[in-house]
Inverse folding.
């Protein structure tokens, strides 16, 4: 199952140097989730061949314009294309009012939109299907802001085919072994599950944390995640600005990645003060070597 992130927009606040405000698409097999929807997100989807009609869920971090101003345009386009499938939008409180106020004068949409407004003050399980769970966690950013953690659910174990033949396992016994159980044979022999099944595949996870101050309170939730995308609005030369505007620096994101023991860190939400983004990579990778520079149009395997 492919689990991959494509960045549509990676800039903070205003667009600059050809960079768009925050938006990303997370693909899990044939499911597409949109994370934030800054201005121009749907244009970026066309640029990067994202099948936008496959998006069923949208997760919004907070209501600053650089994370939501692409939504009315996207919803309007869905409507023009005759979309019928329902759409779910998750966000801190206030988005429904904001979006409906913009759409209502032009008539209502042809498809149902379910707004799920989240209490941003505490961690919550906000979405779940057969393959994934999505948890929201509080971030520190002045207005209600949440991070989202996408976590794969455990899948049934894979059975070793030769063991089916060796022990003449029945369908019921195979099912039980796949569920992790020990098997009792008719002759009274007990076969440990580890002998019958292949080692479980490690579960993958993705944490989307923007916009936020450096905050170690998130560590219990992001500990051991596979891929962490973290606010790196500034480098350390603007540490004071980062604190003042409730954002993080590349060094701070890298420190958090180290403490959380994640596999890889993706940087992003760059201030328009920076034309050259290499400084973010240099600063973060000096602390956390497995840093990758978040760039628009790039796809990162989780
Ligand atoms: Zn922002
Ligand atoms: Zn913000």
């Amino acid at each position: 199952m492919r689990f991959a992130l494509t960045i549509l927009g990676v800039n903070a606040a205003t667009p600059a140097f050809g960079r768009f405000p925050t938006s990303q698409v997370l693909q899990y097999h044939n499911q597409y989730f949109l994370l934030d929807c800054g201005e121009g997100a749907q244009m970026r989807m066309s640029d990067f061949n994202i099948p936008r009609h496959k998006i069923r869920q949208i997760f919004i971090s907070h209501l600053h314009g650089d994370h939501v101003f692409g939504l009315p345009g996207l919803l309007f386009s869905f409507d023009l294309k005759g979309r019928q499938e329902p759409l779910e939008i998750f966000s801190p409180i206030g988005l429904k009012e904001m979006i409906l106020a913009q759409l209502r004068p032009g008539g209502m949409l042809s498809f149902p939109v379910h707004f799920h407004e989240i209490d941003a003050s505490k961690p919550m399980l906000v979405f779940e299907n057969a393959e994934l769970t999505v948890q929201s966690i509080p971030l520190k950013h002045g207005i209600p802001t949440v991070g989202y953690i996408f976590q794969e659910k455990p899948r049934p174990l894979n059975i070793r085919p030769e063991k089916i033949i060796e022990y003449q396992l029945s369908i019921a016994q195979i099912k039980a072994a796949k569920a992790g159980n020990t098997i009792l044979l008719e002759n009274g022999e007990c076969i440990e599950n580890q002998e019958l099944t292949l080692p479980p595949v490690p579960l993958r996870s993705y944490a989307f944390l923007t916009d936020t101050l450096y905050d170690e309170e998130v560590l219990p939730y992001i500990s051991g995640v596979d891929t962490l995308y973290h606010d790196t609005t500034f480098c350390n030369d603007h540490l004071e600005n980062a604190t003042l505007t409730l954002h993080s620096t590349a060094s701070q994101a890298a420190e958090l990645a180290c403490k959380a023991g994640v596999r890889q860190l993706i940087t992003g939400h760059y201030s328009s003060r920076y034309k050259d983004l290499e400084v973010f990579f240099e600063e973060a990778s000096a602390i956390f070597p497995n840093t990758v520079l978040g760039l628009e149009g790039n796809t990162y395997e989780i």
